[in-house]
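Self-study notes.
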Amino acid sequence: MNRRVFIGRAAVGLTAIAAAKDVLGNADPIYGHHGLFYRQVKGWGVLDANRFPVNDCHEMVQDSRGRIFLLTNETRNNVLIYDTKGRLKASWGKEYPGAHGLSIAGEGSDQFLLITDTEKHQVYKTTLDGRVLMTLDYPQEAEIYANKDAYVPTETAVAPNGDIYVADGYGQQYILHYGADGKLKGWFGGRGEGDRFLDNAHGIAIDQRAGKPTLLVTDRTRCCFKRFSLAGELLEIIDLPGAGVCRPVIHGDRLYAAVLRSPDMNQANSGFVTILDKANKVVANIGGTEPIYEGGKLQVMTQSSPLFAHPHDVCVDKDENIYVAQWASGKVYPYKFERVAGKN
């Protein structure tokens, strides 16, 4: 695979390349822009595929102990647990054929996972070792679905008060709002043409960077994130032209996302990873073109090197290293990208 360094256009490119060489002192490929540079850790997380196989590597999270949890729809081991060096620590799960969304919430020993299953049309709250604590079935009581097959949940997010939000990203495009006890409290969104509606509401996250928590929801077909209040009021649209983004991942002041395809959803093997700052401005892409703003408007972004096929999720550790899980990419294990030391 030709993994060349891609660092910007001429105006900032020479400075960025020189800075990368000064810090690294070697010729390893470096990816990124505007002070955010990364090097791939070759061979990270690769296991014996006969004993610990993966199919689609859908999502990854890190627990309070620093362990990395990978969710795959391979039913010989739905969950693989790594340390940050890529060594397998544990595995579990054989009952989630449509394993898709993986979220983590809670504190310390009270942390728990939320798993969405697109084939079973359910959401599961589990302990970190896989014991099921609660199951959210399809919301029949809402009377917005003809049957359970019309409900295909892809992602979850947990509010500060414990309420659970479920994105029906492969179904009717609603955001379902549950109490911490699993009782349905409401819904918003749904399929439609206006701004408040959604199309491929693939991911959802709680964003507290501005203080008051809000919901960031993926509108992947339209290449944007939409910000809603916790009550479902549309507050903002973050346009990302050319980027068919998966779920938003908040880490510190930045927003990270895997871009499944670019410049549109019909272009296979064309993904990259995008990084936004607190002002929701794209500052760097890994495997993608430099983000360029003209007249305050972000220009179309595309893949710049064939580093990824279909990146599906990112996980960011405490050292700001990035882990990338991929869908339909030849059953590859996750990739790790080290943040280049000395860059801000």
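Second protein, same conventions, sequence then structure:
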Amino acid sequence: MAKIGIYGSSFDPVTNVHLWTASTVAHRCKLDKVIFLPCSNKRKEKTMKTSDEHRWNMLQLAIAKNDKFLADDYEMKRDAWEVYTVFTMQHFKKLYPDDDVYFIMGADLLVDIADGKWKHDEELISQNKFIVMARDEIDMVKTISRSPLLRNHDDGSRFHLIDKGLAMEISSSYIRDEFSKGGEPRYLLPDACYDYIQEHGLYREK
């Protein structure tokens, strides 16, 4: 039985922090695979700065040399009404029926679930396992404790909390801002992605 982590983000663009985080989570949680899942551009709360094609191409370049890393365009292909994490996890659990499948997320998303901001939250939490990464001094244990939904499904294996050494400040938005203002973010993302962005003139001010 393999252990597989589902790592969703906009990856607009994919950064070295994304790769370092995925590698660290795989190492600490003994994952056999990490599946990078670019989110749909149809989500109302997300505004992509470049096309699905460019995001997908850069992600493929970024993970090409790591055998543990895969990319999947499942959410990219969904209609907006289908793009909920509970449906995504159902898909991957059917795809890997003999394996343990975990949803990888930041502690900020755990807070959102505790605050009732996620659709189908009862179904999502009751049916899945989660790897939760520290964010901005959020107390993950207190977040679980204050939520009836989270604490009543915390059976000791539901939430794998990683609370040391995963807080880094460089984001995709920071890199986009650097490109748009003529900055030099070369070493914040994979060389192949940097070259791709330069070649296609991405993230430049119009």
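Instructor comment on the second fold: Residues 16 and 189 are 5 Å apart (CA to CA).
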